[in-house]
Amino acid sequence: MSKKIIGLGIDHGFGNIKTAHCIIKSGVRGFATEPELTNRVVGYQGTYYAVGGSRMQVKQSKTEDMDYYILTLAGIAEELKIRGKQQANILLGAGLPLTRVGAEKEAFRSYLMQEKEVNYNYEGLAYEIVMEGVEIYPQGYAAVLPWLSELPSPCLIMEWGSWTVDVVYMEERTPILDRCHSLPYGFIRCQREINIEMMRRFNEQAEEKNMEAIMLAEEVMMPEKYQSLIKEQICLYIKKVIGSMKEYGFSLEMIPVVHLGGGASVVKRFGEYDPGMTRIIEGVAVNATAFEQLVRKKL
């Protein structure tokens, strides 16, 4: 096997697992035998796993079972497929919220490094990888590093994810740890609140996929009255989350803010903000791309 080490970044989200070039819904379903359709199927240690599809339930810890390890193998295979490789030595970059990096990074690193030499199948092809190491970075903060010199001081970073909104307060381009928070205000909660209101008004439930499509301004087959309710509730939810920042000592009328992550484009589309005080860095894969750039620099 080649000794050249490839640096890859993976962002292990509750809604999606992201690499620099690929997004897979964070769902895993096991099979005792290989399914007839091998699209996004991982074969590992005698079991087959279909990844993607519907997302799994939010877990207390991403290391509590094998699901995120299987998703990691799928993400690595997708990146190697782009490079035309099935064998590689990998230095992996991954992330945790800034508020949890200190307490959880060693457990997460051990989880991702649980097997140094890994042999598995993906979409019917055999992959052989050597895990040379795993670097754990603070998500959100890592994603703004390319723009760090341009950020005002002080400023607030809000990374909008599926389950959490990670808030990083910075002075002189340095995070102030006792003013950083990981809050359960991500868009999964928004979708739940939409369906509560949908049931109240119409006795109906919207599919997550359709709500996500509306958030991303994609076309969806749904009567206009339901779409209007969903859009209305998204606007209200973003306004509520931004307003809640005052409880943590931040007024977005008084401090510049950077919105980033998968939900930043939703904030751009449905939120109310002062363009002069706001920067929006769109892209679901901003963290994964940042992790990959950081491990490449390390190499």
Write structural notes for this entry.
With 299 residues, the chain is of the alpha+beta class. The chain folds into two domains: 5-138, Nucleotidyltransferase, domain 5; 141-284, Nucleotidyltransferase, domain 5 (2-Layer Sandwich), CATH 3.30.420. The chain is 33% helix and 29% strand. The chain is built from eight helices and 15 strands. The protein has helices at 67-83, 101-112, 141-144, 187-202, 208-215, 224-244, 264-270, 286-298, and strands at 5-12, 16-19, 23-25, 28-31, 41-44, 47-51, 87-97, 117-122, 125-139, 155-160, 165-171, 174-175, 181-183, 257-260, 278-281. A nine-stranded mixed sheet has the order 3-2-1-7-9-8-5-6-4. Strands 10, 11, 12, 13, 14 and 15 form a six-stranded mixed sheet that branches. β8 and β9 form a beta hairpin.
- Roughly how many Å apart are the termini? 18 Å
Q: What's the SSE pattern? A: EEEEEEHEHEEHEEEEHHHEHEH
Strand content: 25-35%
* Radius of gyration, in angstroms, nearest whole number: 20 Å
Overall CATH architecture of the largest domain: 2-Layer Sandwich
CATH level 1 name of the largest domain? Alpha Beta
